[in-house]
Amino acid sequence: MLETERLILRPSSRADIPQLFEFLGDPAAMEHTHSDKTLRECQRRVMVHEWRRRRDGCAPWVVVRREDGRIIGWGGLYEDPFDPGWGFEVGYYFRPDVWGKGYASELVNAALGFADKQLQLQEVWAMAHPDNTGSRRVLEKAGFSFARHLHERDRLLFRRPRSAEPR
């Protein structure tokens, strides 16, 4: 478990799946990325990532708002088991009603601190849909730089080398 000023970041459990599916399964909320079609598909995705946490030392966290204990997101640092080959990346998914409140930036900064201090990764990657300006801003503020456009995926690829400054 990891805590930030406003968030508690913790591993996922099966009991979290219905609340996660409320936004991970919402096509409007997930407009720029993968949307789970069923509760079972969401459970599979989340639990496969949890298995990878034991292997890799990281996986997306359940994002809980400290002030009220509400699950508002899912994300962090991971190596995607469903789309391998990109190395460690940062990803984040939030309920639409909390967009624009700085939670993604807070999560990304915590994930990068974990990448630098605990895993000592040399670089971290991230992807954003070209139309998702909010996500691109989050990545740029966190020190990511544009690497290239992945035309076949319609994604922008960003990279961030290990920070010389501790987070």
From TrEMBL:
GO terms for molecular function: acyltransferase activity, transferring groups other than amino-acyl groups. Residues 7-163 form the N-acetyltransferase domain. SUPFAM superfamilies: Acyl-CoA N-acyltransferases (Nat). Keywords: Transferase. CDD domains: NAT_SF. It holds the Pfam family Acetyltransf_3. It comes from the Bacteria. The keyword Glycoprotein does not apply. This is GNAT family N-acetyltransferase.
